[in-house]
Amino acid sequence: MKNNTNINVEEIRKDFPILKRKVNGQNLxxxxxxxxxxxxxxxxxSIVSYYSNYNSNIHRGVHALSQEATDAYEGSRVKFQKHFNxxxxxxxIFTSGTTHSINLVxxxxxxxxKRDDEIIVSQLEHHSNxxxxxxxxxxxxxxxxxxxxxxxxxxxxxxxxxxxNAKTKVVFVNHISNALxxxxxxKKIITKAHEYNAAVLxxxxxxxxxxxxxxxxxxxDFYVTSTHKICGPTGVGVxxxxxxxxxxxxxxxxxxxxxxxxxxxxxxxxxxxxxxEAGTPNISGxxxxxxxxxxxxxxxxxxxxxxxxxxxxxxxSKLLEIKDLKIYGVSExxxxxxxxxxxxxxxxxxGSIVDKLGIATRTGHHCAQPIMDYFKIxxxxxxxxxFYNTKEEIDIFIKALNKAILMLS
Amino acid sequence: MxxxxxxxDLVDEFAMFEDWMQRYEYMIDLGKSLPLIDSKYKTExxxxxxxxxxxxxxxxxxxxxxxxxxxxxxxxxxxxIAILIRVFSNQVPNEIIxxxxxxxxxxxLKEHLSPNxxxxxxxxxxxxxxxxxxxxxxxxxx
Lengths: 409, 142
Prior knowledge:
Strand content of chain B: 5-15%
Number of domains of chain A: 2
CATH topology of the largest domain in chain A: Aspartate Aminotransferase, domain 2
Shape of chain B: globular
Oligomer: heterodimer
Structural class of chain A: alpha/beta
Strand order of the largest sheet of chain A: 4-10-9-8-7-5-6
Helix content of chain B: 40-55%
């Protein structure tokens, strides 16, 4: 089917070996990209190449392999610095994923927060975003305030403004809701929070696959993502932190790499970024993540965004032709994620049937129970697209969905 | 009827269908004949943990046999629990504890046995066996 964008999807699909496989005898249709993206061959090859050619521990070895591995690892850091437009490469910290990054930042505020200080989070958050702050509040006596959403799934900005005050120390919101795909107005949120000197942490796990992020322009204090969402391997997180904040908060994990000088009385910490990268990191994963970001930039995030928007509009219009189908999160500002239910049919039932037809969707509460509570539903069926999906796949999905509805009604 | 016999009957019944779709439709039909739990038991206490859909199960011992009743908010889960209850209900606790559940694979529901949290079949079997274990302990102590 024709598309009027700069994406040559037939060529792109050849880059992804997994797209050739069959599931339950059918060609795989992968519509679970918001959970994890698929991996192009160049990224897989870079992992194989690392273990075949220069597997070695980084930073301390004087031998050739260690030098090569260190260069590739640090090269990846520079790629992410440029990609996010950070001022310094040491403001990019590699972690094991977004959850690790959020815990690292939350832990950092343990000594900064005082009793009755306030942390603002949004009702759109992923569980992993809420729990570390609840733990922090239990320890410090600080309190969590929640920005409510409206029936479109959009944050109510005026309510956010009301929550801000001199006690607000941290604000943190996801850039894009994983459950609904709605894009939050983070620039406005950051600017407003800074009027009260609050630090802002943005979870960009759902945004980085779809758009270019400029942390300097946003003036954000912390921005986190996982590279398995952007065609990289699992187990690598990228944490951007402003230099002043990274210097202010203490290390999260103790161990090798993060120390400067150790005696049994006291250790002094290494400088940035090593202070936050204790132990042997996921070297091959970080290097492969750098390859993944190059791959995405080769296609161009603007092109990706335009193509995915086209898929989103097409799928939305096709879905809305189905009787009793309700889409959650109907903001104008959203990415290629559609969360929906059909009448009273349980999302789990539909997910199970379409899986038998080779289609990977996600069902359930998407680790965002507060949103499901708001809409008073047990969960949704969520389909999420990437630039390697096609309108033909959407047509096949719609047929499968109609078949499932027939079976389940 | 013995557990093993019921399992064999189920395997024979499912073998009549040519494809998964017919098997699923049959399973959905079996769900409609499920002995339903009284709505007062549809509470957190009777909910099986580890399912994406809600599945409630209640058990009582009558003449040393366990009678199970259940319900679910999802049609496929209701079919699955109906199959399990057909196998395990009206049996003595010790037989339930000892029972093998390999027939699940034979009737083509293997994918529901994955440890993936979305699938609840393993949790359902575990819960039914836990009830049996509890009743057997009670009988032994009497």
